[in-house]
């Protein structure tokens, strides 16, 4: 099976309030790169967005009356869990669990402004 360029076989698809702002949040906190942005015809409503973090794609779109929010829990490896955790809080995330030493590395959890929980981990 040949997949579209930059896609993996399984990718999260999030339906978010203020989906446009997700580009900015993930770029500032995780260094995400924008892959795609398209709008509903005749509107400024984001229909579909794609970002890449470390070569992994996350797809998302704007919630509306027909599509309610659909959030996720995401586990992400980063170079420095403490620094990334602090960036997330500075960008409006709330603490779920402080960064602490775990059997698998150093990890902490935040809930982003869109309702997703990120488990930020350094191995």
Automatic annotation (TrEMBL):
<dbReference type="InterPro" id="IPR029068">
    <property type="entry name" value="Glyas_Bleomycin-R_OHBP_Dase"/>
</dbReference>
<protein>
    <submittedName>
        <fullName>Uncharacterized conserved protein PhnB, glyoxalase superfamily</fullName>
    </submittedName>
</protein>
<feature type="domain" description="VOC">
    <location>
        <begin position="6"/>
        <end position="123"/>
    </location>
</feature>
<dbReference type="Pfam" id="PF00903">
    <property type="entry name" value="Glyoxalase"/>
</dbReference>
<dbReference type="InterPro" id="IPR037523">
    <property type="entry name" value="VOC_core"/>
</dbReference>
<dbReference type="InterPro" id="IPR004360">
    <property type="entry name" value="Glyas_Fos-R_dOase_dom"/>
</dbReference>
